[in-house]
């Protein structure tokens, strides 16, 4: 698989994502500036974390209007893969590529610590590196990670088995039904709040996040 | 038009003698704008007029020092063609008036000092002092400062990896917020601020200029009183998103050959950046303020020259590269404006609306800046503490101490700071005595820490100054890294009081001795004076930020222990309880002399411990500081979630004394370590071993469950903010 990483002004985990992708893919991801209107020929588009446009409006709302997002929507409609982490997840919900929204954390404070995620299904390109029901550690670092959607949407996500990950060691940010990450209906778009890209090196505390990138690289 | 005279000068913070000098330099009465420029350039904050004579005493040189004090930040060689660029700076006064923005802009300001030199910021730290936690105002300030540091640092995407927090009533009306940034640059790509090249364009980059923060530098040079709340408009507002754009834009521009000189607009904004750049380069500068990007209408020359609007940089560019530079800056949606040019006049000339608003010779503005050797009164040496009465059982004392505000877990704080962004944080907060951040693409890492023990400094400024430097050196050593250099942030009271100036002079003397003995020079720093409210000074607080390097990061250790290890105490224990937390928290006393710092022992013991770590003999290491040996052991047990059985005999002074130059090391083979220590002439003794249990068992057989210990340790902040 070939990957591109989108660069919106104010994102700040693009370097972390480059490191994780480079390590598993054995190749440099392409970096695409948000004002571009076309994507390069890639299979996977990654929206990394950070504070696009300072998150001064709703998180991700400004970036969702960036020129490149039209191309991302076309890519998704063609069945292309899209991964959004943290701010990237927020952008995907604001762009309508994933349902629901991310609200301020329930405690109204930024949360930075490791959390445990449970893998809800492992028959997807993103999650096939884990066993179903397995748990893995991932750092989280967000002020707005409180996943919400109306009851019908939540029921649909559960009914169609589109919940990717749930918090397994306590729901610190107040997310509905402990949801940490969700898939699109065609399982080609994944958004999640915690940062698998920050645990891909034993020296930095572990490789819990590596199966995501290894699986994508092999797909 | 306001009359410019001695009275106005006084209200701007210039005394009669300084006003006389202004008249002498100008040969006429200055304009309003000129007076504004003199008053900020000669403020304590910008001129260091009370501290300069003492700062000269600090050692600043070593073979690895590339740029010492005098640049925007210090620069040291860390190998592989890389340099660490770092500095710590205070934002105390604004943080009391408006805690969130005060702290946030403190982080923003220190970041700019570092990336202006061509370095990508890789770590933020801080050193915070707050008043009595029982006061509601303290809670409000703590909350605002922590949110402000997180709000800014998290957004710009620089990990906040370490820091320290103390509480004391002396900071009730005057908290301290000291922020440190460390960045990485190539040693052959360091950018300096000295302007050059007559005719070269002077370029303004970043946010637009508003009326915020006018005279902030002057505010930071006076004491607080009841009217300080009225100064809220002088506090600037931070915009971390623009800062992030500014970082990326500047670093991108620095990849080209466009930049001749660059400096951030910090305290005293456009005035200090233009005066310093032209002054350092020995050239002149002409500014046309009509071209300055402005956020508000109708701003006067005075307001533009003194505005402290944030997220702004001043550059001198090669003229033939200015359009390319514009394209890079505008790609990042930042303002770019040519607002003047370099001249050979040796003067700063400021034009606005066709009139000359200021025309000042640069050399006397800096050379004739006031310099005071203020009277000093030495703090009398405190009497050594005699024997103390104490009947509190060891386990009770431990549980009380580890729960107190100065020793309890800081998790509630660091959980609000993004410590992992950047993907290089090897040791996060509360994992090791210093934060460890790897240099991307190498096996090398920096070990970074901040420290000072103000209660020692107030009792004995010289020993306290020594101790602050030595403790940061020890923090870095305890990870296996080699300490290389420090930045200092000198927070003191009113320098016009001899006893305060005496504290300052003595602290410098102690710091200088420690820097000398430990080959650990000062490469940057900041002085914050007038930290007093209603005449009551803070504890003298020379906060030290230390930086070290470890060539193979896989050898770095933290302080989490695991089953199957033996615990060895390295260093001599006399049982120094003077000024200790045991004395204060258990016996309700704050007297006695602080633990003496034996710099030879410090060096010897530290070099020994580091060598043992790098040889792979040490599984975990913790330096012994606040609270003494038993606190260190308890923290190791909690970090590793591993039980301990202690065997050494000792009284309260043994377990809670704060003797310096000591470490607890966890090893597989205590006998081997003791043998090596004996051979090196280092005092060492086995004090116990780890066990696969959930208990800390004291030598008297009393066991404390780790759960109980953890509850005590973790309880304070969550309860306070529940």
Main features:
heterodimer, A: alpha/beta, nine-stranded mixed β-sheet, B: alpha+beta, seven-stranded mixed β-sheet, 25 helices, 28 strands, globular
- What strand order characterises the main sheet of chain A? 2-1-3-4-11-10-9-6-7
Q: In angstroms, what is the radius of gyration of chain A?
A: 16 Å
- Low-confidence runs of chain B (pLDDT<50, min 5 residues)? none
Provide the helix percentage of chain A: 10-25%
How much is the radius of gyration of chain B in Å? Answer: 26 Å
Amount of beta strand of chain A: 25-35%
**Annotation field: number of helices of chain A:** 5
Based on helices, strands and strand pairing, what is the structural class of chain B? alpha+beta
Terminal CA distance of chain A: 6 Å
How many strands, which pairing sense, and closed or not: the largest β-sheet of chain B?
7 strands, mixed
Shape of chain A: globular
* Average pLDDT reading of chain B: 95
Largest interface: A-B, 31 and 33 residues
- Percent helix of chain B, as a range, is 25-40%
SSE diagram, text form:
The complex is a heterodimer of chains A (219) and B (722).
Chain A: E1 3-7, H1 14-25, E2 30-33, E3 44-47, H2 68-77, E4 81-85, H3 87-94, E5 101-103, E6 111-119, E7 135-142, E8 146-148, H4 151-159, E9 163-167, E10 179-183, E11 189-192, H5 210-218
Parallel strand pairs in A: 1-2, 1-3, 3-4, 4-11
Antiparallel strand pairs in A: 5-8, 6-7, 6-9, 9-10, 10-11
Helix pairs in contact in A: 1-5
Chain B: H1 6-11, H2 16-26, H3 32-41, H4 44-47, H5 52-55, E1 65-67, E2 74-79, E3 82-90, H6 92-97, H7 99-115, E4 120-130, H8 136-156, E5 160-167, E6 176-186, E7 201-206, H9 216-219, H10 240-254, E8 259-264, H11 269-281, E9 284-288, H12 301-306, E10 312-317, H13 322-331, E11 335-343, E12 347-352, E13 355-361, H14 362-367, H15 394-401, H16 411-414, E14 425-427, E15 435-438, E16 445-451, H17 454-459, H18 461-477, E17 482-491, H19 498-518, E18 522-528, E19 532-533, E20 536-537, E21 541-550, E22 566-570, H20 581-587, H21 599-614, E23 618-623, H22 628-640, E24 643-646, H23 652-656, E25 663-667, H24 670-680, E26 684-691, E27 695-697, E28 703-705, H25 706-720
Parallel strand pairs in B: 4-5, 9-12, 17-18, 24-27
Antiparallel strand pairs in B: 1-2, 2-3, 3-6, 4-6, 7-10, 7-11, 8-10, 9-11, 12-13, 14-15, 15-16, 16-21, 17-21, 19-20, 22-25, 22-26, 23-25, 24-26, 27-28
């Amino acid at each position: 698989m070939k990957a591109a990483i989108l660069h919106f002004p104010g994102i700040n985990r693009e370097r972390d994502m480059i490191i994780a992708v480079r390590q598993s893919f054995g190749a440099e991801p392409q970096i695409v500036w948000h004002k571009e209107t076309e994507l390069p020929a890639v299979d996977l588009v990654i929206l990394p974390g950070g504070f696009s446009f300072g998150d001064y409006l709703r998180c991700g709302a400004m970036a969702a209007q960036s020129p490149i997002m039209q191309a991302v929507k076309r890519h998704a409609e063609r069945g292309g893969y899209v991964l959004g982490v943290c701010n990237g997840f927020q952008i995907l919900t604001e762009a309508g590529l994933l349902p629901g929204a991310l609200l301020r954390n329930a405690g109204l404070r930024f949360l930075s610590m490791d959390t445990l995620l449970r893998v809800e299904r492992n028959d997807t390109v993103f999650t096939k590196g884990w066993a179903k029901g397995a748990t893995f550690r991932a750092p989280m670092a967000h002020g707005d990670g409180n996943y919400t959607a109306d009851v019908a949407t939540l029921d649909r996500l559960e009914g169609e088995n589109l919940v990717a990950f749930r918090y397994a060691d306590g729901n610190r940010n107040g997310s509905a039904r402990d949801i940490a990450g969700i898939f699109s209906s065609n399982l080609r778009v994944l958004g999640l709040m915690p940062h698998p890209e920050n645990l891909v090196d034993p020296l930095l505390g572990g490789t819990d996040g590596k199966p995501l990138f290894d699986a994508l690289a092999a797909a | 038009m306001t009359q410019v005279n001695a009275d106005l000068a006084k209200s701007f913070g210039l005394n009669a003698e300084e006003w006389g000098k202004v008249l002498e330099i100008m040969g006429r009465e200055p304009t309003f704008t000129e007076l504004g420029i003199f008053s900020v350039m000669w403020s304590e904050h910008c001129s260091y007029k009370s501290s300069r004579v003492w700062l000269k005493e600090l050692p600043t040189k070593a073979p690895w020092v590339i740029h010492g004090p005098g640049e925007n930040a210090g620069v040291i060689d860390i190998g592989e063609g890389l340099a660490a660029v770092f500095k710590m700076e205070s934002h105390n006064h604004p943080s009391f008036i408006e805690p969130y923005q005060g702290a946030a802009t403190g982080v923003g300001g220190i970041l700019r000092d570092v990336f202006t030199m061509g370095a990508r910021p890789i770590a933020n730290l801080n050193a915070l002092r707050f008043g009595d936690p029982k006061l509601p105002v303290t809670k409000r300030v703590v909350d605002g400062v922590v949110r402000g540091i997180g709000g800014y640092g998290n957004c710009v995407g620089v990990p906040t990896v370490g820091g320290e927090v103390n509480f004391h009533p002396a900071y009730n009306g005057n908290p301290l917020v000291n922020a440190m940034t460390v960045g990485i640059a190539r040693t052959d790509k360091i950018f300096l601020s000295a302007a050059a090249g007559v005719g070269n364009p002077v370029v303004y980059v970043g946010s637009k200029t508003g009326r915020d923060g006018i005279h902030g530098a002057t505010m930071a040079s006076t004491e607080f009183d009841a009217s300080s709340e009225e100064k809220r408009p002088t506090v600037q507002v931070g915009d971390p998103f623009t800062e992030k754009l500014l970082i990326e834009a500047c670093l991108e521009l620095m990849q080209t050959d466009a930049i001749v000189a660059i400096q951030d607009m910090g305290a005293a904004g456009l005035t200090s950046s233009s005066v310093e750049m032209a002054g350092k380069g020995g050239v002149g500068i002409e500014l046309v303020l009509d071209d300055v990007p402005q956020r508000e209408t109708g701003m006067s020359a005075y307001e533009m020259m003194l505005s402290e609007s944030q997220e702004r940089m001043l550059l001198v560019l090669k003229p033939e590269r200015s359009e390319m530079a514009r394209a890079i800056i505008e790609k990042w949606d930042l303002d770019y404006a040519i607002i003047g040019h370099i001249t050979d006049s040796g003067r700063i000339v400021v034009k606005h609306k066709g009139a000359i608003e200021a025309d000042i010779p640069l050399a006397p503005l800096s050379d004739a800046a006031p310099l005071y050797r203020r009277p000093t009164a030495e703090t009398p040496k405190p009497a050594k503490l005699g024997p103390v009465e104490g009947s509190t059982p060891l386990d009770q004392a431990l549980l009380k101490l580890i729960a107190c505000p100065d020793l309890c877990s800081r998790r509630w704080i660091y959980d609000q700071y993004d410590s992992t962004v950047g993907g290089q944080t090897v040791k996060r907060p509360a994992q090791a005595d210093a934060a460890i951040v790897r240099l991307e693409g190498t096996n090398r890492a920096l070990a970074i820490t901040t420290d000072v023990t103000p209660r020692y400094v107030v009792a004995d400024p010289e020993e306290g100054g020594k101790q602050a430097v030595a403790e940061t050196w020890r923090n870095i050593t305890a990870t296996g890294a080699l300490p290389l250099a420090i930045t200092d942030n000198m927070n003191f009271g009113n320098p016009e009081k001899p006893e305060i100036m005496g504290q300052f002079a003595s602290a410098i003397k102690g710091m200088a001795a420690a820097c000398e003995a430990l080959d650990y020079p000062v490469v940057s720093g900041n002085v914050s004076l007038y930290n007093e409210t209603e005449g009551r000074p803070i504890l003298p607080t020379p906060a030290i930020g230390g930086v070290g390097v470890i060539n193979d990061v896989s050898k770095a250790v933290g302080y989490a222990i695991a089953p199957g290890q033996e615990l060895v105490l390295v260093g001599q224990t006399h049982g120094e309880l003077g000024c200790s937390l045991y004395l204060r928290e258990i016996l309700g006393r704050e007297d006695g002399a602080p633990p003496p710092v034996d710099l030879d022992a410090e060096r010897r013991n530290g070099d020994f411990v580091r060598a043992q770590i790098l040889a792979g003999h040490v599984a975990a290491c913790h330096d012994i500081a606040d609270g003494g040996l038993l606190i260190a052991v308890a923290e190791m047990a909690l970090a590793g979630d591993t039980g301990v059985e202690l065997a050494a005999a000792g009284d309260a002074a043994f377990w809670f004394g704060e003797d310096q130059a000591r470490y607890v090391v966890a090893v597989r083979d205590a006998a081997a370590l003791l043998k090596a220590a004996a051979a090196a002439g280092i005092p060492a003794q086995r004090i116990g071993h780890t066990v696969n249990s959930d208990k800390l068992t004291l030598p008297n057989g009393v066991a404390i469950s780790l759960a109980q210990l953890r509850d005590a340790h973790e309880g304070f902040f969550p309860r306070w903010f529940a």
